[in-house]
Structures are given as C-alpha cells and as structure tokens.
Fold this protein.
Amino acid sequence: MTNTFTRLRATRLQSWLPSLISSKSFFTSALRSADRPPSQRPAVGASSIFDNVVAEKVQEDTTFPIGTEKAEAKEYRFSTANFKASPQKLNMLARQIRGLPLSEAIAQMTFSPKRAAVKIRHNLAFAQKNALLQKGMKSEGLVVSQAWVGKGQYSKRIKIHGRGRMGVMHQSKGEVKIKQTTSSPLFVACIFLHNLALAVYSGWTFYHTFTVYRRNLKTMDFWTVWCDKSGDFWTSTLGLYGYYFYLSKYYEIVDTIIILLKGRKSSTLQTYHHAGAIFTMWANINYAAHPIWVFVILNSFVHTIMYTYYAATTLGLNPPYKQYITRLQLTQFFVGQCIGASYFLVSNGPTRGGECFTRAGPRFAIGSVMLYVAPLIWLFVEFARRIYGKRKQA
C-alpha cells in the first residue's frame, strides 16, 4: 500500500514539473535569487562627509526573462566609518580655515595631504551649495566664520558587556558656518588707492636704486661696487631710498588692518612677514649695511607686481598669475640668501682689497636678514603647497 502511494506521488510530480518550469514566476524568482550580483563594499576614502550626506540610495534590481540582458545591481553608499579620523584631527584642520574666504578654504582642503581633509572639504562644498541655492547669497565675499567637529551622540552599542563607554560607536558631527561680507564703495575705493600707492612707490624705488647700481657696475670695478668701501652708493642713493623703504614697512601693516576689517584673520605668514621686515630693515639702516641693496631692489620689484595685482582684483579683475607672484617671492628669497651668504665668504685676497665687512654692525644686520628669511621661505612653501600644490594619491 505504501509503495503504491509513493509511485502515485512521483507520477503526479513528473506531470507537473514541465508546466512549473515554463511559468514566468519561476523565472523571476530564480533570477532574483541566483543572478543578483553581490553588493560591493565601498573602498576606503570613497565616502562623504559627516551628517550632511545624501541618504543611502540603492537602485532597485530590474528583472528580465532568461535569454535577455541580465540585471545589474548598483549601490551608492556613503559611510563615515571608512574614515579613521579622530575629532581632534578634524578640529586641527577646521581651525586652519576659520576666517578664510570660502574658495580659499576649499582649495586648501583639496590640496591638503591629510585624508581627513576630505570630510572638511565636502562640508565646505555642501555649505557653499546651500548658501548659493537656498539662502540666495552671492559667491563673492563668502567667509568661513565657524568650523568645528565633535563626537556627536552615541548611536549604537557594539558590545553589551562593555565597561563604561567601551565598545560604543559614535557618529561624528561637524558644523560649518559661512557669512557674507559686503564692502561699501568707499571702503573698496580706499583699498584700491592703498594698493595703487604701494605699487607706484615700489616701482619708483626700484627704478632709482637699480638704475644707479647698474650705472656703477658699468663705470667702476666689480669688487668696488660689491663692497662699496668708499660709501658712494650708500651716500648718494641707497641710504635715502633704503630709509624710505624702511618707513614703508610700517605702512604695509595696513594690509593686515584691511584683512581684519573684512572679518578675516591674519595668518602666521603675514604677521611674521611684516614684523620681521620692520626689524631687519631697521637694523640695516641703523648700521648702514651696504648689502641691503639686495633686499631693497628685489623686494621693491616684487611688490610692484604684487600690489598691481591686488589693485586689479579690487576692481573685479582676476588676472591668472597669482601663483607666479608666489614663485617670484620665493625666487627673491633664495637669490637674496645666496647673495647675503657671499658677503661672509669674501676673502682677503689682493684683488679684493679685504673683506666687505669691517664692522660688527653690518655683520649683525645681514645675519639677521638671513635668519629672518629662512623660516619665511618655509612658510611660503607651505602656503604654496596648500593652495597650489598637487593632491597626494591615497
């Protein structure tokens, strides 16, 4: 009896199987279970910012009958867990961009070698998009007023038996605030006149000092002009124009005042540059150090180009050679260091008539310039790397 019932069930199953295989529902379910491609985890570094990310978006699988194109599952995941960056590191980067123009802050985070800078950059881009599209702000004058990162709330306990907060996962929380800075027409006009005045003055200083120095090289012996033992160049030209150049360093502090009035902060580079220039020029004028001609001629030439560029940007123009001005500044520092070092290396040969420095005052003055320029080169290189450098590949 049992064998007869078993043979009957097998006969019915063989009769139903062809119709079941030809049904559409079987094809669909088989494709969903067997042909669905496995989901891929995102690579490290491919995720977006903290809480300001687009929600996880998964494209639905589309099924087709067997024999046609297979379905492809596409997943777009955004997870902050891929970034192993502590809030302390993120806050260190956030402090660097407070008070900076928004475009400059984005560029600084773009070329930063820190992997955590990707989070800050995406937050800045999100804030910029929100300000332009939703708040109706203009792209000009956007400044980062606040930037900070915190641990946020504890969202999930990984291990129930952990002690204290051990094993608790938290979601990083970041906030970026930007503000629109507007300048009155009178303020813009004052900035333009300030930059134009420094450009004209720097060009005037360069023309007079360089012309006299070149004329002396044509009419006198090289070592006589190089050391200026007679003091003719200092008495006729360099002493007067060098003193004016020293006074102009006080007026250049207006650059920092303008930045503060715009709601931005003065960088370490700018503060050190202005303070060091005042002290070194005072030392060289006080001790009548002849090698200061290098500083006066080269720096006045660079400032003529630089302040002309600043005056053009005040009028709304954007000349594309800003990075070349930074390179020109670095070039003058390297050339000045080499020439300054050569004054300490001149020997007492018969054709040279002795050393250029006969007193301790000029030695101290030129030595102070070289010590001041050495950290300045490093600050300018770091500035150029942050703004114009190439981003390192992860």
Observations:
- Strands lie at 57-58, 75-76, 142-150, 154-157, 168-170, 173-180.
- The mean pLDDT is 73.
- Residues 185-388 form one domain.
- The chain has three domains: 12-80, 85-180, 185-388.
